[in-house]
Design goal:
about 400 residues, alpha/beta, QueA-like, 10 helices
Length: about 400
């Protein structure tokens, strides 16, 4: 049964001065709130390895943020911002990034009320800076503020290189400032590898090589998944009932070897960020699909709640491993729309590293589900003890209740 949850029950007062507008000078210098057995305490992020059990598994999201904000202008001189969401043609990220000459993306289009289908836009920049490339954009179709845009350019470069040269890093809108040079480095994890996200998995922004070296020295296995974070992460829940809020599909990839390591983890799993949590918990339902239908399928938003699932985690992951082995595949690549709200049954993740999230957001619902509804205790502690909030803010380590 889909839970009846009112989003207003997940509201709190977040003063603007508590939102971290810029990162700290050192990535791992942030405060770290520890929530365990219903109690809150604090330390600094460099002490994270001391709080984790040996022989456990830690999972990171190695997606890489792309400079997905492009600025064009109409022949009238009106400025148009185009925010690339996901590839449309070619539909695969790698093929789209490698395209030369033209490609299509699903985009959010700003200041677009008078923009007509088929209208050609020119890059809003000094022409001499992009001589020989001449990027243009054409609106193919639209649906409100979103639509499909076809990009054209010259010079034989890939679309990936075009974004690097012409695009801006899409920092969160709640920072209320333009992208600056510091964001090019700091709105990206140090272990980011696979391009595709339009928002950073911000829990990972705190990790440095020394922290990860200390994690490894404790005997903790570190592995990666890849979920490309979509712009839906910025969207507030506008409906009064969470049941009416649509989740957008996000593609993810999990290596076959990681599935086995999950089964072998002696001291449980620590997920770095809500994106890693959603990916890992989606694996159970992908495995259940293998058992029932012979192959994994995308995870729908309300799949965990619409019926009882009686397979064990071992059975579900075992079915995924068997499917991949039968097909000769070394990784699983599907998509998920899963929403994690109070009432969700966690099957894989035992601990979570995460930042502090916006009021009335799906991420706050996930936190509440993870800590057995005790999210206000955590957020009251953070507000009362000087913690910095949101993407560039401080961190927390939550033990599941």
């Amino acid at each position: 049964m889909i839970p009846e949850i009112r989003i207003q029950d997940y509201n709190y007062v977040l003063p603007d001065e508590r939102i971290a507008k810029y990162p700290l000078k050192e990535r791992d210098a942030s405060k770290l709130l520890i929530y365990k057995d219903g109690d809150c305490s604090e330390t600094i992020f460099t002490s994270l390895p001391d709080e984790l059990p040996a022989d456990s598994l830690m999972v990171f999201n190695d997606t890489k943020v792309v400079p997905a904000r492009l600025f064009f202008k109409r022949p009238t001189g009106a400025h148009i911002e185009i925010f690339c969401l996901e590839p449309d043609s070619p539909p695969e990220y790698n093929s789209n990034f490698a395209a030369t000459g033209q490609c299509r993306w699903k985009c959010v289009i700003g200041n677009s009320k008078r923009l007509k289908t088929g209208e050609i836009l020119e890059l809003d920049a000094d022409e001499k800076d992009f001589d020989g490339i001449w990027p243009t954009a054409k609106l193919i179709s639209r649906d409100g503020q979103t639509g499909v845009v076809e990009f054209f350019w010259q010079g034989g470069i890939s679309f990936s290189e075009l974004l690097d040269r012409c695009g801006r890093v899409p920092i969160p809108p709640y920072l209320n400032r333009d992208t600056e040079a510091i964001d090019l480095e700091r709105y990206q994890t140090t272990y980011a590898r696979i391009r595709g996200s339009v928002a950073a998995p911000t829990a990972g922004l705190h990790f440095t090589s020394r922290v990860m070296d200390n994690i490894a020295a404790k005997g903790i296995d570190m592995e990666t998944i890849c979920l490309h974070v979509g712009a839906g992460t910025f969207l507030p829940v506008k409906s009064s009932l969470v049941a009416d809020h649509p989740m957008h599909r996000e593609p993810f990839t999990v290596k076959r070897d990681l599935l086995q390591r999950i089964l072998d983890a002696k001291s449980g799993i620590t997920a770095v960020g809500t994106t890693s949590v959603r990916t890992l918990e989606s694996l159970y339902y992908a495995g259940a699909s293998c058992i029932e239908n012979g192959c994994p399928s995308d995870i729908s938003q309300w799949a965990p709640y619409e019926r009882e699932w009686n397979y064990s985690t071992g059975e579900a992951l075992g079915a995924l491993i068997e499917y991949l082995d039968t097909k000769g595949l070394d990784k699983l690549s599907i998509g998920t729309r899963i929403i994690i709200v109070p009432g969700f049954e966690f099957r894989l993740v035992d601990r979570m590293v995460t930042n502090f999230h916006q009021p009335q957001s799906t991420l706050l619902l996930l936190i509440s589900a993870f800590v057995g509804g005790d999210w206000r205790r955590i957020y009251d502690y953070a507000l009362g003890h000087g913690f910095r909030f949101l993407s560039y803010g401080d961190s927390s380590l939550l033990f599941r209740r």
